[in-house]
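Re: the request from the purification team.
They wanted to know what the chain is likely to look like in 3D before they choose a buffer screen. I agreed to run a prediction and write the result into the notebook, where they can find it.
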Amino acid sequence: MNTPTLITDDTCAGRLRDGDETAFRYVMDRYFPIITMFALRIVHNRSAAEDIAEDTFIKLWQTREKSQTFQSIKAFLFITAKNACLNALRSERSMARRNTGFVAASAEEEETIDREIIRSEVWAEIHRAAAELPEKTGRVFRLAYVEGLPNREIARQLNISVNTVKTQKARAIELLREKLQGKDILPAILTLLGLLEKLNS
């Protein structure tokens, strides 16, 4: 009997609970870059960030039977990575730093990390929607807003004019706005898209 290979957000959790490696790969393809970026913004060390992301996904697989929904899977990833980041930061401190100073620093770090979770989740939604953009528009979007290349370099790489780059960037932002309507985190998404539009001007 053939096992269906198509994975969706709705079917992912159930199939992951059953030990379906395709479902695990679905989550990893979607969120490994996001979790790595999230960790990197906290620990400021790419090797450490990649290690945290790898350990996070190992723990997801080890506890896969607890997966209930796709939302719970995402929450698990961010919470696990957050705790690992905090542990990494705390391990760097001097043993002399304790009590009130330690607690205050920890609270400040957790607040910062919580903001980064929101930022990363917003980027995850934008990246997912960007993957569905028309090919040329999607390439321009990734080069501009993911890799951070200037318009002239994008034009050179794609052998198009700078004006075409600007037009494609504007089109990408408009299409993303349409695709992301109705999301729970839409206000944050619109804020970030607004910042991207400023880069486009």
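For the purification team: The chain has a mean pLDDT of 80.
Please add any questions underneath this entry.
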